[in-house]
Amino acid sequence: MGPSKAPEIMLSVPLYATSVDIWSTGCVLAEMLEGRPLFPVQNSFQQLEAIMTLLACTPEDVIAMNCTLTLLKFMIVFQPDRRISAVDALTHTFVGDYHDPQDEPVALERITLQYDDDSSFRPQEWRHIILASVQEFHRRLAQQAV
Fold it and tell me: Which CATH number is 87's domain given?
């Protein structure tokens, strides 16, 4: 299985929300369907670029054709607040037969993660590096479209 870190984790967002788990679950589901890693990369920069490539190149009408892919469409979304919630995902047609609301507790509070990063970069430096990488990616993507 390849890396399945949600984009916000790579961007050092300190609040851990269920959207992180939804992202990871979507990655695992996609890997099970494909039989190969969704993001076969070596590092976070490559993964972020692979995520942007996947999300920029996935036609909406193709994704919507299949029930499973429809669920993935809601799980593999760059913006965490736009991902399907765990509660809604559990009621989706693809997994609805296994849904048991009596045995699926919901956390009432968000969890704050503490990162133990021994790299030489501070979080602000990482954000700057990743932002520059994202901007360069979009610049190259725009050049290819011309």
Answer: 1.10.510.10
